[in-house]
Write a structure and sequence with these properties.
Elements (H helix, E strand, L loop, with lengths): L4 E8 L1 H18 L6 E6 L3 H16 L5 E4 L8 H4 L18 E9 L3 H11 L6 E9 L11 E5 L6 E6 L1 H4 L3 E7 L2
Parallel strand pairs: 2-3, 2-4, 4-5, 5-6
Antiparallel strand pairs: 1-8, 7-8
Amino acid sequence: MLAVGKEKALIMDADQMRRVLTRIAHEIIERNKGVQNIALVGIRRRGVPLAERLAQRIKEIEGTRVPVGILDITLYRDDLTTLAHQPLVHQTKVDFMITGKVIILVDDVLFTGRTVRSALDALIDLGRPEAIQMMVLIDRGHRELPIRADFVGKNVPTSKKEVVAVRVKEIDNQDSVAIIERLE
């Protein structure tokens, strides 16, 4: 969901996003002492193309393709009844065993932490990973739950009246991150 309002600031352009994902790929490899036991799981929607890009960067660096899954958290959300009378559910596609693996959840923005909580519930229903790590492109603060990311592209202080709009070319036909002032 992209915000409707006035763009206040451009946080990242396409080149900056590419460099951030390359840096995070190196951090993932270093922290996990390689990639032999890791898999990436993108949280639908914009976490999925980010996970695919990370997998490509890791392959370029290590010469190994890590598995990538897609996680739909719609039915795990704690605000499900406020979303819609019949929410649109998409497919979760994790074509590998997660039990015993280090799973890196990938999302675009970390805000209250509720999306991550839902993703953890959905992931645990698929198996018992050795560990779960979190990667986000943007951490904007305002946590309501005790959740933090292991890998962060950029910390961006925001007010609650602002929205962080992550755009990826696979969905939005461009790569950028902007702060949008929400129209009241």
